[in-house]
Amino acid sequence: MSRACINLLGETREYTDILAQMQAFTTARQATTPDEFWLLSHSPVFTQGLNGLPAHVLDAGDIPVVHTDRGGQVTYHGPGQLVLYTLVDLKRAGLGVREWVAALEQTVMDFMAARGVAAERKAGAPGVYVGGAKIAALGLKVRQGRCYHGLSFNIDMDLSPFARINPCGMARLPVTQWRDCYPAFEAGQATFSAIGQELIHPLTQQLSRVKPHWNTP
Prior knowledge:
Blueprint: E1 5-13, H1 15-28, E2 36-42, E3 45-48, E4 65-67, E5 75-77, E6 81-89, H2 90-93, H3 97-113, E7 128-130, E8 133-143, E9 146-154, H4 178-181, H5 189-210
Helix pairs in contact: 3-5
């Protein structure tokens, strides 16, 4: 039986290293390679999407700007932000890109709703928003039906670097985080990992609804 794997890379990791690993995994995977979900946070970095406009980087300062191969414009990654990379064979699962984007958004929204926090989508601007402020960003790359990259969910971090860019190409877009939305939030690595695994569970369910043999232990 094939299974989706969860890799808890919780310590802060360099973006370029993880990008290279995702690309290598996607290039090497075969028709029977299990899907993988990677949970981690990154050292401070601005990442610029394939069609990213340099004008959206207002003042990078001492934070590196890395050009990457996902869709979308510029965003920020840093410690305290949960990054969930979804290395999923969408073609094998019978899922389209838009379906997977919707599943990622819905997973974050359902997690928040279960704790009494209302979140919403914004037309033409993928991601999850609370009161108009962005709390989760999305960016994917699909190569021959195989997806990598994923979502970033602001948990407990320094949000000030977002002021140095137009987040996701949107000028003056307010940004928020889970710590500021959920009064019962408790800081710590255990909380970080638990949130990540709770987000992964419905995604594996989404896969298993289409291909019942793809599941998580």
